[in-house]
Amino acid sequence: MNIAYICTDFGVPVFGFKGASIHVREMVAAMCRAGHSVRIISPAMNSGKGAAGTSNMGEGGALQEVEPPVELNWLSASEQQRLTCLSVPPAPEHLQFTRELKRLDLFFGQDSRLRQEVRNLLYNLSLQDTVLEDLKARRIDFIYERYTLFSRAGILLARELGIPHILEVNAPLAYEQEKMRGLEMKDMAHDMELQIYRETDRAMVVSDELKSFLVTNGVPDERVTVLPNGVDPWRFTISENDADVREKYNLGNKTVIGFVGSLKPWHGTKTLLEAFQQLRSSYDNIHLLIVGDGPRREALEAYTAEHQLQSAVTFTGKIQHDDIPRYIDAMDITAAPYIPNDNFYFSPIKIFEYMIMKKPVVGARIGQVEKLIKSGETGLLFEAGDIPGLAKVLKQLIDQPTVSKEMGETASRWVRAERTWDNNLSQVIAAVDQIRNS
């Protein structure tokens, strides 16, 4: 098939290294691996922000074919031949308008998000005007779009071409944007979000919680498919002799408890650190390896110093995604210690990455985490935010290394069978076939 993959999110550079960027590339890689031809269409191929978040793009308002960086090591040679990356910059007059809005912010001494929201709205026109003829010429079979706030052009393009539109939904973005970063055009954002959900041919949501949100807001149940995130097993295979991470941090034969991810409050790294501190008085041979960076790092390091845990806790800082398998390999027990959250609609990729590397996972009973970890089989669960509870399940795995290893083996077999990007793609193609035959 010929597939158009649309991602209009200015904050998700296709060649970037944030989780969302990797998600985009992994799904595209699965498409190419399956023999499909893919055209990625995005306003943001490379990382970097300017006044309007577009400094890495041209301003001619025309399609620009872009080659992926060689160092990205993303696709095989045969897969690369099936991929075209098209940068679609905003129209010059739209960029100028957003610059004027920034000047207004400066004039009034404010820092609003109005210019970003207006930019996203106007980008619908840029996208529709720029890519329609290209997609017609390429005889695109269906559009696969990563949902972005205010982005409806993909649906209208699919209607114009008479092809299915598949919408990947990772979060209720109007709610998330308002809560996390602020939202100026609140009513419009929420109304447009529901309109987009209802108009797509099939919504692929990453969790049961998201499906419930869509169905509650008027999307027919049969048009919503739960498709959690996945993992590419080939990217998480390393040499048996690759022990450089343990050597680098002098971990020796210690039992290593590990976490991978951004150090944000809701990820529960403080909970993990406090549980580890409780265990430390009983075990001399344990070590906590925290892989990643984020806004909580300084506070976590201060806690570590206050409780004299520096020799037992390592903060690696930011690590390139290609190196993550080596760090997970150095761990004996892995953690997804999320704290209580009434709106936990996520599908944590880290859990699939832990599991594919044959590691047991200790996770909080929250959202999809509780469904992914089969307690006693692939890991252990504890009540979200319960520090003594987390310490207890960690102790169980520390005390039973053979059982812990068996759990990791079981987890890996399950992920290979059920939660790969290739499996996800097969469900997308099945949905497309169903729509075309209905």
Widest sheet, order of strands: 3-4-2-1-5-6-7-8
Per CATH, the architecture of the largest domain is 3-Layer(aba) Sandwich
Helix content: 40-55%
Shape: globular
Structural class designation: alpha/beta
CATH class of the largest domain: Alpha Beta
- Please summarize the sheet with the most strands: 8 strands, mixed
How many strands in all? 14
Give the CATH topology of the largest domain.
Answer: Rossmann fold
Number of structural units classed as domains: 2
Query: What is the mean pLDDT?
Result: 93
Strand content: 15-25%
- Rg over CA atoms, rounded to whole Å, is 23 Å
Gap from first CA to last CA? 18 Å
Low-confidence stretches: 49-59
Can you tell me the CATH superfamily of the largest domain?
Glycogen Phosphorylase B
- Tally of alpha and pi helices: 17
Topology of helices and strands:
Elements: E1 2-7, H1 19-33, E2 37-42, E3 64-66, H2 77-80, E4 83-87, H3 92-108, H4 114-137, E5 142-146, H5 153-161, E6 165-169, H6 173-180, H7 186-199, E7 202-205, H8 208-216, E8 224-226, H9 244-248, E9 255-260, H10 269-280, E10 286-291, H11 297-306, E11 313-317, H12 324-329, E12 333-336, H13 349-356, E13 361-364, H14 367-372, E14 379-382, H15 387-399, H16 401-418, H17 421-437
Parallel strand pairs: 1-2, 1-5, 2-4, 5-6, 6-7, 7-8, 9-10, 9-12, 10-11, 12-13, 13-14
Antiparallel strand pairs: 3-4
Helix pairs in contact: 1-17, 3-4, 4-5, 6-7, 10-15, 13-16
